[in-house]
Amino acid sequence: MSRTPEEGGFTYAASGVDIDAGERAVTLMRTAVERTRRPEVVGGLGGFAGLFALDTARYRRPLLASSTDGVGTKIALARALDRHDTVGIDLVAMVVDDLVACGAEPLFLQDYVACGKVVPERIAAVVTGIAAGCEQAGASLVGGETAEHGDLMDADEYDLAATAVGVVEADAVLGPERVRDGDVVVAMASSGFHSNGYSLVRRVVSAAGLDLAATPAGLDRPLGDVLLEPTRVYALDCLALLAELGVDGVHALAHITGGGLAGNTARVVPAGLEAVLDRGTWALPAAVHLLEEHGVPRAESERAFNCGVGMVAVVAAEAGDRAVALLTARGVPAWVAGTVGTGGTGARLVGSYR
């Protein structure tokens, strides 16, 4: 009869799955997760499913909205720098900022962490970041899963995914059907590259031999810090905009992710209309300039990166100044970047950056 080297028979731990380490990770993250708790959450951490009591008395005709996303290869930078407390914020932002684009309020989120080896402190750092992102979004982290895949992933490898659920009134759903000729496009500044284009970012950094610990000319801090800057969570800011202006004022929201500013804005512009966005209303971020200096063409930058704009709101012309003022007061740099008109289709960029 075959035995393991320790002659005690086959064990899960010897196969690469440490249940005790997983339980310690849960203990370390518990306080951060509990801080995200909304009053509608039923039960606590550790159940087989997350329960959330939707107060239907608050709504006339509620629609549930859902969104799923991950962080992508930005995680490779977190591993290279051994800093794992920010990618969880990225994870939440990528999900809830998609969710709010239809006008939905994020309610709760569940995460999935796959790793080669459960290192409790590292997993706790990741989930603490997820909890921080949920707090920024006003959503509860009602549960998640940590899966140890020692025979599929290296010990320091991990990947993240999450799904969030929100709610929006059926007659308040935002989208292209609300957008009109004469609307203005309000841009909201990004906090960096967010969580898109990192396969390209990392390739340029490697090919150019850029030092993540150094501060290149034009940047005000080490390159690694700039690249790990977490994605801005716009959800509560967009909901505040809707609360102030209503759907007569705010017609559409677009989260600027892969595909760039023009590509994602086009998704909320109806056939027969065109959003014209003026580059001259903002400056191209220094980090984008750096990558362009090392070989990324401008056209590719504008497709792969957000180029300084992480979210746009298409609002009625008379609401543009109010929208900018409200967002600015909430700490989100914002400006009128363009207009919607006839004579084209989708969205395009014109002019030169400041």
From TrEMBL:
Domain named PurM-like N-terminal: residues: 64-168
Domain PurM-like C-terminal: 180-345
Top-level enzyme category: ligase
UniProtKB keywords: ATP-binding, Cytoplasm, Ligase, Nucleotide-binding, Purine biosynthesis
Catalytic activity: 2-formamido-N(1)-(5-O-phospho-beta-D-ribosyl)acetamidine + ATP = 5-amino-1-(5-phospho-beta-D-ribosyl)imidazole + ADP + phosphate + H(+)
SUPFAM superfamilies membership: PurM C-terminal domain-like, PurM N-terminal domain-like
Gene Ontology biological process: 'de novo' IMP biosynthetic process; adenine biosynthetic process
Pfam families named among the record's database cross-references: AIRS, AIRS_C
Places the protein is found: Cytoplasm
GO CC terms in record: cytosol
Recorded family membership: Belongs to the AIR synthase family.
HAMAP family to which the protein is assigned, alphabetical: AIRS
Protein name from the UniProt record: Phosphoribosylformylglycinamidine cyclo-ligase
Species of provenance: Geodermatophilus dictyosporus
